[in-house]
Amino acid sequence: MAGVQKAKSEETHRRVLEAAIAAVEAGGMEAVNIRKIAADAGYSVGSVYKHFADQDALLLAVNSVTLGRIKDLMASKVETVDEPLARLKVLALAYLAFARDNRNLWMTLFSHHLPEGKAVPEWHIQENIALLGFIAAPLRELDPSMMEEDLAARTRTAFAAVHGLVTISLEARFVGLSGEKLEQEMNFLVERLAG
């Protein structure tokens, strides 16, 4: 009996999360409404709240899926790339491709903020750190003598620079780039960051 209940609970959790992901994909973070998610998943509002304490918890779960998808894409792209600078370039272009192809999920990942005083769960922090590990590894190979503190700073700087270029370009700001020129400049940026 307990096994059946657990399976039902997992199914409810999965379907609610899938409905929330679909809502974000279609309409961005603003499309996540507990009542609508419940209806789309085929459950009551109370069932949603049994699995997700509030809208923030549901958005954190969506963002967790997004991080997993970015991680899977990056892992698949660098699987056969041995040279560290080439890996960094591939990672940057994979990040750009994900943002282009999954714009609403990507924007929600960076637009959702927990209310003041509500801490980001440790598991979510660790998911973010795991992604940064993709950048840190080739940077370490390029400069094995770099101190851990410096490597952490360089990793965050590299991510912030790439993220900034992607953000400005996808938002079509007047200083943004597009198409092949964006990809060329992404490679230029990564070369300079890798030093």
Detailed description of the structure:
The chain has helices at residues 2-27, 34-41, 45-51, 55-78, 84-101, 103-111, 122-142, 148-170, 179-194. By secondary structure, the protein is mostly helical. It has 2 domains: 1-52, Arc Repressor Mutant, subunit A (Orthogonal Bundle); 64-194, Tetracycline Repressor, domain 2 (Orthogonal Bundle), CATH 1.10.357. Helix 1 (2-27) crosses helix 4 and helix 5 (84-101) runs parallel beside helix 8. The longest helix has 26 residues, at 2-27. The termini are far apart. 24% of the residues are buried. The model has no long low-confidence stretch (mean pLDDT 93).
Topology:
Elements: H1 2-27, H2 34-41, H3 45-51, H4 55-78, H5 84-101, H6 103-111, H7 122-142, H8 148-170, H9 179-194
Short description:
The chain has 195 residues and is mostly helical. It has 9 helices and no strands. The longest helix is centred in the N-terminal third of the chain and has 26 residues, at 2-27.
